[in-house]
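Proteins fold. Shown next:

***
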Amino acid sequence: MSFSSMGEAAVPVRLDRTVVGPSILANDVRGVEYAARLDRDISARDLYRISPNRVGPNFTFSKLMWIREHDPDTYRAADKFLFWADFIAFMLGADPFASNSLANRSLLFNVRENRWSDTLLDWSGIDRKKLGDIASGGDVVGTVRSDLARRFGLRDDVLLVAGGHDQVLNALGCSCIENGSAVVGMGTYESYCPIFSWPGDTEAFFAENMNIENHVVPGLFASFLYHHSGYLVDWFRRTFAPGETVEGLNARIPDGPTRILFLPHNEPPQWPEFIRHTSGVFVGLKSSTTVDEMYRAVLEGITFYLMQAVTAMERTGVAPDVFLASGGGSRSDAWMQIRADITGKPFTRLGVGEGSLNGTAILAAVKSGMFPDNGAAVRAYVSHERTFVPDPDRHAYYARLAEVYRSVYPSLAGVLENLEQV
């Protein structure tokens, strides 16, 4: 058995497997003052050399520091703070551990050296003993407790295998196991996740505000950017086409590109910088504009945001030739073709429902001896359904439109900030 979870959130537990307090989520604003303090005390470049991330209040360190100061009883009672996926394995019988991809989301982890950072622990004052021992994705961390095995009808020798962050497990589950591969998860959130070997120079990644994280495949690393995707599609459907289904909207998407731009800032974007005071914007509406055209513009706007990340990653030297796509959004032929046309890259739809779950299954299957390695498991578990090839003429048009898209936010930034503060 292996487990995947979102990052940042950690559960305070005792060694007797008793939970002693709540888990604070990444989007909880508690701890923002500690992020500001870290940003002041350690330069962004020096931090990046240890933990290649840019400071934000979402990381685990700020939550642990907040608990220590504002809820000292919980902090003292907790023997360990365990990330969600690791917590499940611990409750089933594993010794307390921290999978390295989730440890990266704490901002207390040295990614290159694959260990907790003495420098960042000393700065934070977080007790190293309250964190699990580091395990790499795919490491065996224990077996299911015999009493639980009996309770759940399992054999008494079920292995517990370290999983990790859902982003890199989605990459594994979508067959991204080689340098130069990339997956785009098209779900409620959209995540662009390229896979690469450790870069000789991380300065280019730092300049582009791109993070670096351990893959669950040994020797490989990942970066990821996420933004609202299916969330915005559902917002549009509810707001502009109540009673309509997404399938119905997809069936009526106009065939050609629009002359409408949509800035997908309904919620604050996190990259290339966190922008608090902004809003979603339609540009180019006319009295003849239809709901179907606006819907296509939403799909194009989300993809233009993705294209910015692809271009930024190419400047680091990581330039995938083909993008693998998973998630509910990938079921739309029209949107897959829009993505190919805007990026100028082929997009391949995978026959994978939940990539992260597929990734944990692959890790567990390999460790159980069902397959000799990840490659064999991927070949058995992942199918490529269809590849969408970019149309050269549409790509040329979208390249011109992308220039206009990139000017929308800078042109309206002052207006949007003033509007938020009225």
Observations:
- Residues 97 and 132 are 4 Å apart (CA to CA).
- The chain has a mean pLDDT of 94.
